[in-house]
Each structure stands twice: as structure tokens, then as C-alpha cells.
Design goal:
Elements (H helix, E strand, L loop, with lengths): L1 E2 L5 H8 L4 E6 L2 E2 L1 H12 L3 E6 L4 H13 L3 E4 L20 E4 L3 E5 L3 E2 H4 L4 E6 L2 H16 L18 H10 L11 E3 L5 E3 L16 E2 L15 E2 L4 E2 L12 E5 L5 E11 L6 E11 L10 E8 L4 E9 L8 E6 L6 E11 L5 E12 L1
Parallel strand pairs: 2-4, 3-8, 4-5
Antiparallel strand pairs: 1-9, 2-6, 6-7, 7-9, 10-11, 12-22, 13-16, 14-15, 15-22, 16-21, 17-20, 17-22, 18-19, 18-21
The structure holds calcium ion (CA) (2 copies).
């Protein structure tokens, strides 16, 4: 979930999907829609339990009263919480999670507070990993009972206070090409700190660029599209349009009627390399006889993650028909450091087929 862009309805729907239990831990709860949903679920027989941060009774007081009056199990977090880890005590319950039926958790950076919904950038993830959810439930049960606990890490879950710093440092220090940090505020023991925006300099230990080929299933030899997205009938092994190598290729168009085929793959292009080369082999045959008009076309484009075309690398047509395959190469260095999609789009007019056959693609970086 990316907020505020996607809105809160998925969170409400998640709560309303509960059939057995809802366990919510939240720093600030000031959302009457959500509070009413919790009360209604309790009345419908779902066991609802809520932990609110005790340091924010001025914000959480109304929700506490409504939940309590509605029969929901609600408690303020203990200000005497003591994790057994390094004898460190804390006074804030800053956690923001909802666990439904003990099987799926929503983990949020944002509070459930309508005051801030429209103006705050927040992220949330729905997590069905059993180890993650079990760890959240284990901590919830201890915090709800106000007993000490040292949380166990999940598969993709770390805890504060206990071990989050070491895991975060490990993630940061593992960066090889780029490090994007979005953070409301940050401070650490080195004295580095910032608010809203800040920069860490990353010095990768091993060179700047690991030579690599970035496209998956580059010659279509899995016999299916993934990780490409392809329109119906594109992934081909028929001898009508033989591959450049192997047994499979991508055959766009060839119908002789008005038709569009697409073939695309999302790819993260790292920064820090000196060479970024897209290449593919292309065969074109056609029933068109014109030597002047491009009736059927194949475009090769780069799109951003929102689907906006950033650049058209080439457009081929029935005029470019050749016997056999030719290799084409393009420089993608303009897209270094970006998440982009490579897309081939083949469009035919109403008559006389043109086939655009692609094989042995690659994006080589070095
Ligand atoms: Ca092939
Ligand atoms: Ca045509």
C-alpha cells in the first residue's frame, strides 16, 4: 500500500474480512470508520483486541472509549514495558499492525489517524508469511498481557528494540549500486542525523558495476512468457516462424487482420556501469508488397513504472522485411538507476500479414 495515493479502503476491507480475530497495535487511533468497523466486528462475534499507545491518551482517548463501550478488548500499552534485551526499557508503542484471523498482518508506517491521511506519505505491507505473523502475534499477546518478551524475528520482520539496527545496517551495507532511503527522521550513534531528507554516502566494497545480463527468459526457451508479459499466442515454437536459436521465439502479429501484440518486461537498471546495451534478433516477413508505405509496425519502447513512454528506441515496419534474422542494439545508459519496462508493440492494419519475430534478447551491463 502506498499512501495517501491508494487510500485507506484496503485497510478497512482487511479488517472487515476477519471471521475469527483482529489484533491491532497502534500508536495513534483517530479514525471513526476504522473504530466503528472494529466495534461492528466484535458485535458480529469476532474477537477484537486493540493496544493503544499510553503516551497519547489525548489522541487515543475517544477511540478507547468507543471501543471499550462496544465490547472490544482495548488496553493502553504499559509504560513499564521492559524488553529483556540488554535490559533496555522503552515507553513508546510505535508499532502499527493489524493481524486478522492469526494468518495475515498489515504492517504500516502510518497511524490510523484521519488527521494525517491526506498529507502524509506512508507505506504499508500485507504480510502472510507464517513466521512474520507468528512473531507479531507472540508480541501482541505479551504486550496485551503486559508481560516481558524478547521477540523472535520473522522471515522479513525485525523488531525495535532488539535487533533492528543490526539488520538495517546489514541491508544498507549490502548496497552495491544504489541506496534509496525515504525516512521521516533519522539519527544514529555516529551523530549522523537528518529530517525529511538526508544522505548517506555508500562506498561499495567491490567495484561499482557487476557485469550482468538483466532480462529473464531472454530467448523464450522456458516455453512460456514469464517474466515477460506477452499477449496471447506470442510465445511460439511452431516451424512457421523458426527461432534464431533454441526452440522458441516471440512472434508478434502475422494475422493479416487488424491486430496488436505486445511483449514487455520490467527491469531494474542499476547505476554505476559504463555500458548498458539492449540487443535482440529480429526477423520480419510480410505479405505486403508496397515499397513505400509502413502499414504494419513494431515499436521498441522504454516505459517508466507508471507506464509512461520515456523513449522510443526504434520503429520497424513491413518495409524492413528480411530473410532470416538481424541483430539490433541500443544504448540504455539514459535509464541507469531507473525501474523501467522494455516493450515491443506490433500493430497490423486490416489486411496482408506482417510477422515480427524476436529472439535472443539481452540487456548487458558492464
Ligand atoms: Ca529462442
Ligand atoms: Ca498488413
Amino acid at each position: 500500500m502506498i499512501l495517501p495515493d491508494q487510500g485507506e479502503s484496503a485497510i478497512y476491507n482487511f479488517v472487515n474480512s476477519a471471521t475469527k480475530s483482529i489484533d491491532m497495535t497502534i500508536y495513534e487511533l483517530r479514525d471513526t470508520t476504522l473504530v466503528n468497523d472494529l466495534v461492528n466486528k466484535e458485535k458480529a462475534g469476532v474477537q477484537v483486541r486493540v493496544i493503544l499507545n499510553a503516551q497519547h491518551t489525548s489522541v487515543n482517548g475517544a477511540a478507547y472509549s468507543t471501543l471499550s463501550a462496544g465490547g472490544v478488548g482495548v488496553t493502553y500499552s504499559s509504560s513499564a514495558y521492559v524488553y529483556t534485551h540488554q535490559n533496555s526499557a522503552y515507553v513508546y508503542t510505535h508499532q502499527k499492525t493489524i493481524t486478522v484471523d492469526g494468518t495475515k498482518s498489515y504492517i504500516s508506517t502510518g497511524n490510523f489517524d484521519t488527521t494525517y491521511y491526506s498529507t502524509s506519505r506512508d507505506y504499508g505491507v500485507f504480510d502472510s508469511d507464517s513466521a512474520d505473523v507468528a512473531a507479531i502475534e507472540q508480541v501482541f499477546n505479551a504486550d496485551y498481557a503486559k508481560t516481558a518478551i524478547t521477540p523472535s524475528v520473522g522471515t522479513d520482520l525485525v523488531w525495535s528494540p532488539t535487533d533492528s539496527q543490526s539488520h538495517l545496517l546489514s541491508l544498507i551495507n549490502g548496497a552495491q549500486h544504489s541506496l534509496d532511503v525515504e525516512e521521516e527522521a533519522a539519527t544514529d550513534t555516529t551523530g549522523a542525523n537528518g529530517s525529511t531528507t538526508f544522505t548517506w554516502n555508500v562506498n561499495p566494497s567491490s567495484g561499482k558495476c557487476t557485469p550482468n545480463q538483466l532480462l529473464g527468459n531472454p530467448g523464450f526457451e522456458t516455453g512460456s512468457a514469464a517474466p515477460w508479459s506477452a499477449s496471447s499466442g506470442v510465445i511460439n515454437s511452431s516451424s512457421s516462424e523458426p527461432p534464431h536459436s533454441g526452440s522458441w521465439d516471440a512472434w508478434l502479429d502475422g494475422y493479416g487482420t487488424t491486430h496488436t501484440d505486445t511483449l514487455s518486461q520490467a527491469v531494474t537498471i542499476p547505476s554505476g556501469c559504463s555500458s548498458y546495451q539492449l540487443s535482440f534478433w529480429l526477423h520480419i516477413d510480410t505479405a505486403e508488397t508496397t515499397t513505400t508505405s509502413a502499414y504494419d509496425t513494431l515499436s521498441v519502447q522504454i516505459l517508466n513504472s507508471s507506464g509512461t513512454v520515456l523513449g522510443t528506441l526504434a520503429t520497424y515496419s513491413n518495409l524492413d522485411h528480411i530473410t532470416g534474422y538481424a541483430q539490433h542494439t541500443f544504448d540504455l545508459s539514459a535509464y541507469a538507476g531507473q525501474n523501467v519496462t522494455l516493450r515491443f508493440t506490433g500493430s497490423e492494419d486490416y489486411e496482408l500479414q506482417t510477422s515480427f519475430v524476436i529472439d535472443d534478447t539481452a540487456i548487458n551491463i558492464s
